[in-house]
């Protein structure tokens, strides 16, 4: 009997010792850092404060789900961007109003896009997310041409028209049934755009059709059907034509920012989803000093509600 106890003890000890090695085989990164690409200032009211900017709502959105944020500057060298890419765990392209082919924002984005493609093909996970203009940017990067047409939905909160692909999607797989139902029935998505990719254009473009699954559509104010949510079929790239970050972190009373309980839940679930995608990346800074110096904590946002619809903005 004593021998049996010894055998059990040795067996359990062996299994317990083996578990860490098994986890290390595919580790989860619980200290993710997501980059947000800064964007050129184009509004005259904002120009006195900096050349590039990031609305603080995007930062809070990611931080609320357990990520830290690095602002990624424009006009750096390829070597600089490659070093940043190997240090962070994902990238978010924000909304805005710059040219999607000639702007410094677009030129920097294509470098990260190409690095992420190459990395994934070699077994290195690096997720990317585009919101509004960032969503449009992903379609330009994939299609290698600008396919945008007028799909106005300016200051308009809408429910989503989910496609059949949404039910099996990564983006919505962890949504509770009642929240997903609310997303199709209640105005939970804030839209602030003039242009988009129509459903017909998307389906008619072989590159987009092969690369992305359409998860939702909406009808613009001019009656045109546009793609409002998409995810990569193979690559961990995601786009929303609407703004999930505003549901919790923007409060201008003149703007239709959805703030209902369900709107807040949708925002939280999407932020958690993308941060959990970033946890799959093992990229890291070479030393703690460089990591600390890169983080958004080194910057102070400005209170901007007097001259923008954003409550706070980081200027660079």
UniProtKB/TrEMBL annotation:
**Any one cellular component term from GO for this entry?**
extracellular region
Pfam families to which the protein is assigned, alphabetical: Peptidase_C26
Q: Where in the cell is it found?
A: Secreted, Extracellular space
Q: What is its EC number?
A: 3.4.19.9
Spell out the catalytic residues: 132 (nucleophile), 243, 243 (proton donor)
UniProt signal peptide: 1-18
Question: What is an example of a GO molecular function annotated in this UniProt entry?
Answer: gamma-glutamyl-peptidase activity
Q: Which reaction does it catalyse?
A: (6S)-5,6,7,8-tetrahydrofolyl-(gamma-L-Glu)(n) + (n-1) H2O = (6S)-5,6,7,8-tetrahydrofolate + (n-1) L-glutamate
Its domain of life?
A: Eukaryota
Q: What class of enzyme is it?
A: hydrolase
Q: Which UniProt keywords apply?
A: Hydrolase, Secreted, Signal
* Major localisation: secreted
Task: Answer yes or no on keyword Hydrolase.
Answer: yes
Stated family: Belongs to the peptidase C26 family.
Quote the protein name from its UniProt record: folate gamma-glutamyl hydrolase
């Amino acid at each position: 009997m004593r021998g049996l106890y010894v055998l059990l003890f040795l067996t359990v000890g062996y299994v317990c010792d083996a578990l860490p090695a098994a986890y290390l085989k595919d580790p989860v990164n619980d200290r993710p850092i997501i980059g947000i690409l800064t964007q050129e200032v184009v509004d005259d009211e904002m120009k006195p404060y900096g050349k590039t900017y990031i609305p603080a709502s995007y930062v809070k959105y990611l931080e609320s789900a357990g990520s830290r944020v690095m602002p990624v500057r424009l006009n750096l060298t390829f070597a600089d961007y490659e070093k940043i890419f190997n240090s962070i765990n994902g990238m978010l392209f924000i909304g805005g109003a710059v040219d999607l082919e000639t702007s410094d924002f677009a030129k920097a984005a294509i470098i990260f896009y190409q690095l992420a493609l190459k990395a994934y093909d070699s077994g290195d996970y690096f997720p990317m997310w585009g919101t509004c203009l960032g969503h449009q940017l992903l379609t330009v990067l994939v299609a290698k041409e600008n396919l945008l047409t007028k799909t106005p939905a300016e200051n308009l909160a809408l429910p989503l028209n989910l496609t059949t692909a949404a039910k099996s999607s990564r983006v919505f797989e962890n949504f509770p049934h009642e929240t997903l139902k609310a997303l199709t029935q209640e105005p939970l998505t804030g839209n602030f755009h003039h242009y988009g990719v129509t459903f017909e254009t998307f389906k008619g473009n072989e590159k987009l059709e092969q690369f992305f699954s359409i998860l939702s559509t909406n009808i613009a104010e001019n009656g045109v059907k546009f793609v409002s949510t998409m995810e990569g079929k193979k690559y961990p790239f995601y786009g929303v034509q609407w703004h999930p970050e505003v549901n919790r972190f923007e409060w201008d009373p003149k703007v239709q920012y959805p703030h209902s309980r369900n709107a807040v839940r949708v925002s939280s679930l999407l932020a958690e989803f993308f941060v959990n995608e970033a946890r799959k990346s093992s990229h890291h800074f070479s030393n703690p000093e460089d990591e600390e110096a890169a983080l958004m904590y080194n910057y102070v946002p400005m209170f901007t509600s007097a001259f923008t619809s954003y409550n706070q903005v980081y200027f660079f």
